[in-house]
Write a structure and sequence with these properties.
It is a single chain. The chain is 56% helix and 0% strand. It has helices at 10-20, 24-29, 47-62, 67-77. The longest helix has 16 residues, at 47-62.
Length: 78
């Protein structure tokens, strides 16, 4: 489909990556490793981090910070 119709099914490729764990390079080009050698990072949440996340959630609920600010700050914590 990619060559005949000059189209690339991005949505299907992303879904396939999610379901199989295959790399984007392998799915798109057939090159490289099928599975990534990298292991996903495990997120370890300490009590301190959980408290900070709760405070951020409270600030968001009160309207003191926007959704975008909340997500940016949350990403820094985790």
């Amino acid at each position: 489909m990619r060559y005949k119709r000059d189209s690339f099914p991005y949505d299907l490729v992303i879904r396939c990556m999610d379901e199989t764990g295959a790399t984007l390079q392998w799915l798109a080009n057939g090159e490289g490793e099928f599975l990534s050698n990298e292991k996903p990072k495990e997120t370890v949440l300490t009590d301190e981090t959980l408290e900070k996340l709760e405070r951020l959630a409270n600030l968001k609920e009160k309207g003191a910070i926007t959704d975008q600010e909340f997500n940016e700050l949350k990403a820094k914590l985790i």
